[in-house]
DNA sequence: CCAAACAGTCTCTATTTTAGACCAACGGTC
DNA sequence: GACCGTTGGTCTAAAATAGAGACTGTTTGG
């Protein structure tokens, strides 16, 4: 197996790795890349990778929205449902459980009839919220640029 | 329809809104929450919400990983595949297209045989990368805490 | 001449998500 | 007092989505 090292056998008409090159001729970024690639080879490594873990949670799609919603204060199940109308009960329950399991929020049950339950961020949850808020700011700042890029792309590639 | 205002008719045994209270008696956070809730009622609003847009992209699950991988420099399709072994070609293609459409990365085709294509972050992509890296740092920092919380949760609630 | 590599596309299946019914007890209305 | 909505969920069936793998056509390597 040739195990081709990317970047060496590249088309002659374009510089592909525009990164600093080490004395031996291989790109520095390439080496980092190889390390990263190697790391991701084993399922075990992938599973215990913190980045993956966080990303998989964001991949819940609802998780981030829930945390953002809870930034306004403690919230009951049904209030969350109203705040995020397009989440199904099932997913809301599931996402809340995951978040609780990971210690990002705490669940409090009031033994009344009908039962009342509320969710609030833990300190860990608050710190995650900080990250999310930074992301939200980036999103708002970049929104116009993204919309523009999107319009341009759609115009270039078929408009159907 | 009573349109119950959350927070007023709460169980007597627990303070549910531990947030500053405005002169008129309603929680400040509650008002923000109502605004947020109102915003999310209309599908149109949800669709054009920048936060949603970014979150939906992270919800791709692979998008973030791709951007993080491209932080090491330009990368060809197959190298990305090797770097992220558990992504399917289908999703990789799809995610790359979305990212390109939103102007986070650029795609360059070298008309050789066999064809070569490489992807690299645009300035906008780099700025998104910054956010992602901050998130990655948070993830690594918080990993132990999360693992602990998880272990505790699993111990408390049935260990099956 | 068979195999692999390149960057995808296409189809078929497996997983995930959603929509909606249901629970049991209570408050308000008619 | 029948009827409705409210509480926080769980459960099932249907819809959307993701994944696995075959296929494209050309070129180099063995």
Give structural notes.
The structure is a homodimer of 160-residue chains. By secondary structure, chain A is mostly helical. Chain A has a domain at 60-140: Arc Repressor Mutant, subunit A (Orthogonal Bundle). Chain A has 7 helices and 3 strands; from the N terminus they run ααααβααββα. The first copy, chain A, has helices spanning 28-39, 43-48, 50-58, 63-70, 77-83, 89-101, 123-156; strands at residues 75-76, 105-110, 116-121. Chain A has a 3-stranded antiparallel sheet. In chain A, a hairpin with a 5-residue loop joins β2 and β3 (116-121). The longest helix of chain A is centred in the C-terminal third of the chain and has 34 residues, at 123-156. Chain A is extended, with a radius of gyration of 23 Å. The two termini of chain A are 43 Å apart. Mean pLDDT of chain A is 83; it is low at 1-22. The structure holds a DNA duplex (30 and 30 nucleotides).
Strand order in the sheet with the most strands of chain A: 1-3-2
User: What is the N-to-C order of secondary-structure elements of chain A (H for helix, E for strand)?
Assistant: HHHHEHHEEH
> What is the CATH C level class of the domain at 60-140 in chain A, in words?
Mainly Alpha
Number of helices of chain A: 7
Provide the gyration radius of chain A in Å. 23 Å
Report mean pLDDT of chain A, rounded to a whole number.
Answer: 83
Based on Cα principal axes, name the global outline of chain A. extended
Oligomer: homodimer
Uncertain runs of chain A: 1-22
Give the percentage of residues in beta strands of chain A: 5-15%
The main pleated sheet of chain A reads as:
3 strands, antiparallel
What would you give as the CATH superfamily of the domain at 60-140 in chain A? Winged helix-like DNA-binding domain superfamily/Winged helix DNA-binding domain
Percentage of helical residues of chain A? 55-70%
| CATH fold node name of the domain at 60-140 in chain A | Arc Repressor Mutant, subunit A
| Total strand segments of chain A | 3
CA distance, first residue to last residue of chain A: 43 Å
If interface size is counted as residues with C-beta under 8 Å from the partner's C-beta, which chains form the largest one?
A: A-B, 76 and 76 residues
């Amino acid at each position: 197996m040739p195990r081709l090292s990317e970047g060496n056998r590249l088309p002659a008409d374009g510089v592909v790795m525009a990164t600093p090159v080490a004395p031996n001729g291989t790109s520095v970024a390439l080496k980092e890349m190889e390390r990263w690639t190697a790391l991701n080879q084993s399922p075990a490594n992938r599973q215990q990778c913190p980045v993956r873990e966080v990303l998989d949670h964001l991949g819940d799609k609802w998780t981030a929205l829930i945390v953002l919603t809870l930034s306004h204060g403690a919230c009951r199940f049904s209030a969350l449902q109203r705040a995020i109308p397009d989440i199904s009960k099932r997913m809301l329950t599931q996402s809340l459980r995951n978040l609780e399991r990971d210690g990002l929020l705490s669940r409090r049950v009031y033994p009344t009839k009908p039962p009342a339950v509320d969710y609030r961020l833990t300190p860990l949850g608050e710190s995650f919220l900080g990250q999310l808020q930074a992301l939200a700011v980036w999103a708002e700042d970049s929104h116009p640029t993204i919309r523009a890029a999107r319009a341009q792309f759609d115009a270039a590639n078929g408009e159907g």
